[in-house]
Amino acid sequence: MKRVEIIAIGREILRGQTLDTNSHWLARRITALGARVGRIVVPDDEVEAIAQEIRRAFRNGAEVIITTGGMGPTFDDRTLEGVAAAVGVPLEIDPWALDFVRRRYEEFYRKGFVDDPSLTPQREKMARLPKGATPLPNPVGAAPGVFIKMEEGVIFSLPGVPREMKPLFEEEVLPRLKEILGVGAYLEEELDTGLKDESALAQLIEKVMKKIPGVYIKSKPTRFGADVSLKVVLSAAGKEEAEIRTRLSEAKGLLTSMLTPSD
Amino acid sequence: MKRVEIIAIGREILRGQTLDTNSHWLARRITALGARVGRIVVPDDEVEAIAQEIRRAFRNGAEVIITTGGMGPTFDDRTLEGVAAAVGVPLEIDPWALDFVRRRYEEFYRKGFVDDPSLTPQREKMARLPKGATPLPNPVGAAPGVFIKMEEGVIFSLPGVPREMKPLFEEEVLPRLKEILGVGAYLEEELDTGLKDESALAQLIEKVMKKIPGVYIKSKPTRFGADVSLKVVLSAAGKEEAEIRTRLSEAKGLLTSMLTPSD
Question: What ipTM describes this predicted complex?
Answer without folding.
Answer: 0.84
